[in-house]
């Protein structure tokens, strides 16, 4: 028996209570359907590939129980912080049941996510997807691709532009070489046999070597100049050190940038991107973020890719290559919106025998009725029997030159046309402002790809695929961002963002699988 102080409003009373262990059973937990679904999925996959059970401490928490709680939290709430996981472990009876009464702290979940899940989140997502996906959908391998931008956990005013390196790095090097010239002039006037070379290319190693030599020389001189103030060479050395620090920061920024044109100092892996339209400031908000691409098959997210590119066109090929590494083969069919329709993507899909239903920019405009206002656009101009464009006045364009471009990695042939009958034309001011006459560029192979896409989209099957892409791929982002309010990343760095988004996607797939399961057979969990 133990006396426990019971606080009251008007007096202090002592009440005796017995210390009894309170057991928790499934009947006490109420609705366990989602929790049981997650336990069922975890039981069907081999966790030994990611969790080393043999190296676990005897007093360690059960890793399967920790994983179950994490997946349940992400499936139930869309996202869960470490503190939320700790709170659920203490007060949620479902979590207490799987943890057998243990209460892991937020540090425990942090270590588990960083050490166990960070390096294996992609493979874990892949195995869960294979476990819950329908076999017919796996064989069909139809991928609905869409992308969105997630705002990074970084200050929007900590941007760094790649143009700054190109502009200011040479200027700082010129200042450094000017200081070296002043040093040479000083040593020459003093009759000291010291001279440093003037280099055109910035080399930090060279500046460090000069600084070390000047430091040794000044140590000898300072013994003689005691009480006579700072040495002129010491002043120049100090200025040279300041410039060297700036050059080092630019060299470091150049390595961080890679092929990007910007990054955030708070999160160097994040790229400055235009987010959605800001209705309050009436401008596009420019913030650090990540471009997240997902491929949805039969309502489940099959694969995700995090890209620093602000344009979706450049993400298609890396996305499909990552999908091949994950699944061992390319998808049989890919459906996207107009943000992915480029010559390089069409050629890549043809090379790897992928049926690419990629809308292209201008697809909707091409279907518009020709009017007096838009008749001067190239896509609304008529073509003769050779495929040469004909202007609204009925004059054929003439070929000027043929160029081959390799920017997309595959040769792209472009024919450059110019109309020689613009002189004196009454419609010239509405058609072109060029002094040489109206010009046009046509890529025959690109137009061939676009005609193939037009033929597919005009069929009932093509329209069905585009409708499914809108509901499945865009619907997945709508559910994650709007329904569960997850649009801002919490972790920093590409590895942290990858594990965070991986858990969010796992939660989405498990939630979607549970909803389908309950819809088809509501009595399965009773």
Automatic annotation (TrEMBL):
Domain Transposase DDE: from-to ranges: 390-514
Domain Transposase InsH N-terminal: from-to ranges: 55-114
Origin: domain of life: Bacteria
Protein name: IS1182 family transposase
Protein's organism: Holdemania massiliensis
